[in-house]
Specification:
Elements: E1 35-40, E2 45-50, E3 55-61, E4 66-71, E5 77-82, E6 87-92, E7 98-103, E8 110-115, E9 121-125, E10 130-135, E11 142-147, E12 153-158, E13 164-169, E14 174-179, E15 187-190, E16 195-200, E17 207-211, E18 216-220, E19 227-232, E20 237-242, E21 248-253, E22 258-263, E23 268-274, H1 278-284, E24 286-291, E25 297-302, E26 307-312, E27 318-323, E28 328-334
Antiparallel strand pairs: 1-2, 1-28, 2-3, 4-5, 5-6, 6-7, 8-9, 9-10, 10-11, 12-13, 13-14, 14-15, 16-17, 17-18, 18-19, 20-21, 21-22, 22-23, 24-25, 25-26, 26-27
Length: 335
């Protein structure tokens, strides 16, 4: 579906209103520690940004058109999905030295990626209409492929148990459930127009999907794929993430440069955050969003501006803009 961003109506919510008294804290970028990793999909780079100083401290060549990133459970490595190629590449977080390249086969085009708490990596292979389970990725790196049978299996969520994975399938307008242990046939349901963003609540009880062509987020039962509810968002919600605390979900609304905050208890959109103006939205092209591990900040990749906006979740204030060189898109964080 083609969207003309300048003609879209804004979401009628109170911008930047605090979510609740428990979140009322003064933003202070100087207290941030850790590192942000950014995949530059236009420059074919991987970079590391020191969050204490806000400076890019390392940059290396990566693969063609790199997209999503995921960090290992011990924060010592970061995995990169090489969307323009066929591999998942792994780098040390300390110095961005590449330690592993795992080939997924002809025309794989890996995109969505999860480095699970069990130590294994899961990735979509859009070109093969499949999901890969990579066991022991830093060792033997055994790969197991599961067909979705759907066009554009793009983004990915994995159950806390590691038994199931879910994909959003842009080409077929579906969400697909893949059983990773029994290899039963995958099941798919249509969800809105152009479902792309996907996130599972920490308890594994609700699957959230953002459909960018519908300007909505959908709550699904993870096992039956029944749609439990839907929520109006801002324009073109490309991504959705759940706060680590499990209390809110946030969509990245590319066409208006905003974020929609959804209360997961009620399923209602409770506020919007203006990261950039509607006039700036197309030039900045806000894509991937990521919560800090403590849930206090949101990082929004502004791909065409080569920046990453750091947003205080409690107040909605943009604290600073960090380097996102090379057309930063996929991100990962350690704290």
């Amino acid at each position: 579906m083609s969207r003309k961003f300048g003609l879209l109506a804004p979401l009628a919510l109170v911008a930047c209103a605090p979510v609740g008294s428990e979140l009322a804290s003064e933003p202070d970028a100087s207290s941030v520690t850790g590192a942000l990793f950014v995949a530059g999909k236009f420059g074919n780079t991987l970079s590391k940004v020191d969050l204490a100083t806000g400076e890019e401290v390392l940059q290396v060549d990566s693969c063609a058109n790199p997209h999503e990133l995921a960090t290992s459970p011990d924060d010592r490595h970061v995995a990169l999905a090489c969307y323009g190629g066929t591999s998942v590449d792994i780098f040390r977080t300390s110095d961005l030295g590449k330690v592993q390249s795992i080939d997924l086969g002809e025309n794989a085009r890996p995109h969505g990626i999860v480095w699970h708490a069990n130590g294994d990596i899961y990735a979509t292979a859009e070109g093969r209409q499949s999901v890969f389970w990579i066991s022991d990725p830093l060792g033997q790196a055994d790969t197991f492929e599961y067909a979705t049978g759907k066009r554009g299996s793009h983004m990915l969520a994995v159950a806390p148990s590691g038994n199931y994975a879910w994909t959003t399938d842009l080409g077929d307008r579906t969400v697909t459930l893949v059983d990773l242990k029994t290899r039963r046939a995958p099941r798919s349901v249509e969800v809105g127009e152009e479902p792309e963003g996907i996130a599972l609540t920490p308890d594994g009880e609700t699957l959230w999907v953002s459909a960018r062509g519908s300007d909505k987020a959908f709550a699904l039962d993870p096992q039956t794929l029944e749609v439990r509810g839907q929520t109006e968002t801002g324009d073109f919600p490309l991504r959705i993430v759940v706060r680590p605390q499990g209390d809110y979900a946030v969509t990245s609304d590319l066409a208006d440069g905003g974020l929609t905050v959804i209360d997961l208890a009620s399923g209602e959109a409770v506020r919007s955050i203006a990261v950039s103006s509607r006039e700036e939205a197309e030039a900045r092209t806000q894509v991937t969003i990521l919560f800090s591990p403590d849930g206090e900040r949101i990082y929004a990749a502004e791909t065409r501006a080569n920046t990453v906006a750091e947003v205080d979740f409690a107040t909605g204030e943009v604290l600073r803009r960090l380097p996102g060189s090379g057309g930063g898109d996929g991100m990962a964080i350690i704290q």
